[in-house]
Amino acid sequence: MSQLRRTRNRSAGLQRPPAAILVIASIAVAFFALPFIGLLWRIPWSDAWSLLTTKSSLTAIRLSLETSLWATALSIVFGVPLAWVLARYGFPGRRIVRALCLLSLVLPPVVGGVALFAAYGRRGLLGDSLFEWFGLRLPFSTAGVVLAQTFIAMPFLVLTVEAALRGLDHRSEDAARTLGASRWYAFRRVTLPAVRPALIAGAVLAWARALGEFGATITFAGNFPGRTQTMPLSVYLALESNPGQALVLSVVMIGISFGVLLSLRDQWLGGSSTSGGSR
Amino acid sequence: MSINAQFDIQLPEFHLAIELALAEGEVLAVLGPNGSGKSTLLRALCGLQPVDNGKILLNNIVVDDAELATFVLPEQRHVGVMFQNSTLFEYLSVLENVAFGLRARGTKRVVARANATEWLERFSLEQFAQRRPASLSGGQAQRVALARALATNPDVLLLDEPTSALDVRAKAEIRRDLLRLRQQRPVTTLLVTHDPLDAFALADRVIVLEEGRIVQSGALDEVASHPRSRHIADMVGLSLVRGEVRDGALTTASGARLVVPADSPSGPSVASIRPAAVSLHRAEPEGSARNAWKMTVSDLDRHPERVRARLNGPIPLLAELTPAGAEALALNVGDNIWASVKASEVTVTPDLGS
Amino acid sequence: MSGSLTVSAASSLQGAFTDMKTAFEKANRGVKVTVNFGASSTLAQQIIDGAPIDVLASADEANMTKVSDAKLLSDTPTLFATNSLEIIVRKGNPSKIASLSDISKPRLIYVTCAPQVPIGKYSAQVLQKAGVTVTPASLEPDVKSIVAKVTAGEADVGIVYVTDVSATQGTAEGVEIPADVNVTANYPIAAVSTSTNRALAQAWIAFVRGTEGQAILKRYGFGSP
After folding, report:
1. Is A108 helix (H, G, I), strand (E, B) or coil?
2. Looking at the complex, does the CB of residue A237 fall below 8 Å from at least one CB of chain C?
3. Which domains does chain A have, with CATH numbers?
4. Domain residue ranges in chain C
5. Which residues are within 8 A (CB) of B220 and not within 5 positions of it... i.e. 6 or more apart?
């Protein structure tokens, strides 16, 4: 008889968490779920499609997608070499340089926007030079949006890829060199494939962050439909003039972010493993 | 290809000072404890580490000269390297791994793959061609790494602890492959190891590295008989006996019999005996040691802390005693003496043939 | 009188209402006034969304009507000040703006606010009256942002209230807008129905409309209602 009881408790103990933990965890899940459920509940579903396809909504969506994809591309082109240098070379002041590059991760984005002005604004460090040499006026322009988004999003990619590069065994590359591979060939055929999962995760995170970027964009690039009014800015403005549109656009953004998180599976920030769930 | 190296490199813990020369086709073993600079030496030779002073010549061509600031990149040195832990490329198949070297040098894929297939066949590894390295055992991976290093037809072969990460059987397999290679196409080889059995199996000459300095060098036998330090003595004092193990005893080609531990696998084997495990007696010993032979002392190496005796007999042995012990036996070259070894002190490894 | 009072006021009232707060607290020891500045449209939306505000002072009647339509005012709004518009440029007028039509000169950066913000609506009216078409580089959140962008040199020109130009105390200059195309901004004030301190709210409104409040407003350049 006592043996029967033992078995039952054992299997229950192994499969389910203790009741108290379960309750607290459920509250936490509700905490996260309620805002989204609330959103879905408040959407004027009958008008949803027409709100979504208004000129201002579509323009904002198109602009957001364009700028965020550019920002992601720039993040990859500049971020991967940076991650490489940070992961592989110990130079004096490395920690400071690294902290500088990752600063916008923890900075309030609006502060980032102000700082961008100081660098690229008309009276900023480079502003006039950029205009004289290239005819480039970054504030209040779509290029300025891309700049602001890249500034905020690139650190995500750098962080993920750097961690993955750090975790790699140098000796694979050493072996490649002794076999006759140039540094570039070894990078292409040995290093890159090994960090590919982290690179993809980093790029997706950077893209999602760029898509949702608000503070630096509205401060530096300003707000003008079709040129600099991305989806988050559109939602912010619509809150006052057309709440239904704000809701619909919000749900679109949430849907995209949700999809991104699902697609990443467990390959989150920090890139602790270079191999994903499946091989 | 010959190797001529005379250089030093400043490392955080010590200063590495090397002077060595290898003739074409020679096999040199570099012995030493971990952290003595062996790997750095190897890295300097293959170009992964530039020297601080001095120079390195491969086949009389300068590949590294600190004073003239000449440096040939690793990818241009035609050196084949096998690292500890195989370091196969995880995201390529075994075949692509072996073909990597030729592909990296610009050979067309088809040609490189055909060459790689040949090499895999030579090592009887062709069934793994399409597999990923992660699915191979340690020994198989290491042998693929060897094939990969050889596939580019290097002029020099550098082996960095090729057997350390392997189990006993895999160790024996690698040694067999390397021996076979030596016979079929001798390549100038530098073998870095802390396992003296590797040296015994493969090397003509040995240098012993300790804290960055070469403390002894010479033919293996010489160094084994006349070790200059306790450390070296411990490293290269083993007696090796080849023969067939059956029913708990190893029988040599000449018919001598060595009782081995009961759990030793049967078949062709190599038994190794540490010098300290050999006891010497003036009269035939009675008691637990079932291995006892009458021997002649052929060489004596006297040292304030220990005495080494080279013994000739049914099973040639190297014995070590304390100076007091040697005194008590009044040992001299040419004496007859009884040597005994406990079966439990004998280590048996399979001999996969040469 | 005691307790705490939260007032939402249009950005253009920043200087005047801050002085009024000091004066009111001095006259009524035991009272703490918190003033919340922002674009009138944003402030109105906050109240509609349930922010605990006692009094709203808006820069136009449209936004006050929004709150009234949501049945959130406890009495009829009353006008307490007026304002008119002025062109704002950086100190020294480097772009040499002399009139409204100069704003549409090529390669000038003109910023304004979104149409639901009072200044956005007013400046659009002024430009329309003057027959000037210009595309803004950005729609800023409130009038103070326009001032900030122009004084920082990131924008060349904007249209703000005359009170804003004088509030810059020399870091920016104003260019007059002729009276025939200018608009008068009417500033209403009202108590919010969800206020927890009706008496205090009414006292504040009385203060604003009283002698002292009006004197302060005049000092900042506002006109009488």
Report:
1. coil
2. yes
3. 47-264 (1.10.3720.10)
4. 3-81+186-220, 83-175
5. B29, B199, B200, B203, B204, B205, B206, B236
ipTM at complex level? 0.77
CB proximity list for C66: less than 8 A, separation 6 or greater = C44, C45, C48
Which tokens belong to B127?
A: 């069934």
- Encode pLDDT of C26-83 as tens digits: 999 999 999 999 999 999 999 998 899 999 999 999 999 999 999 999 989 999 999 9
CATH 3.40.190.10 fits C3-81+186-220, yes or no: yes
Kindly tell me whether chain B and chain C come into contact, counting contact as 3+ Cβ pairs under 8 Å: no
What domains lie within chain B, and their CATH numbers?
A: 3-235 (3.40.50.300), 239-350 (2.40.50.100)
Name the H helices within C5-133: 14-27, 40-48, 61-69, 118-130
Count, in order, helices (H) and strands (E) of chain B.
9, 21
Amino acid at C70: A
Tell me which chain C residues have a C-beta less than 8 angstroms from the C-beta of A221: 138
Residue of A nearest to C39 (CA): A240
A148 touches chain C (CB under 8 A): no
Asked whether A and C share 3 or more beta-carbon pairs under 8 angstroms, the answer is yes
- pLDDT, tens only, A126-146: 877 887 788 778 888 899 999
Helices (H) and strands (E) in chain C, counts: 8, 9
CATH number of C83-175: 3.40.190.10
Residue pair A180/B105 in contact (Cβ under 8 Å)? The answer is yes
> β-strand B249-251 against B257-259: which pairing, if any?
antiparallel
Nearest-CA neighbor of B341 among B298, B281, B283, B297?
B281
CA A108 from centroid of its chain's CA atoms: 15
Dihedral of CA atoms B187, B192, B195, B199 in degrees, nearest 10, equals 30
Cβ proximity of A162 and A81 under 8 Å: no
Helix (H, G, I), strand (E, B) or coil at B311: strand
CB C88 within 8 A of CB C64: no
Contact C152 A117 (CB under 8 A): yes
Cα–Cα dist A154/A132, whole Å: 27
Contact B170, B142 (CB under 8 A): yes
A123, A139, A240: residue with CB nearest C42: A240
Q: Do the chains contact at A140 and C152, CB–CB below 8 Å?
A: no
Q: What is the pTM of this model?
A: 0.74
Phi, psi dihedrals of residue A7, rounded to the nearest 5°: -65, -45
Which residues, in sequence order, are bridge partners of residue C52? none
Instruction: Tell me whether A172 touches chain B (CB under 8 Å).
Output: yes
Cα-Cα-Cα-Cα dihedral sign, residues A66, A69, A71, A77: negative
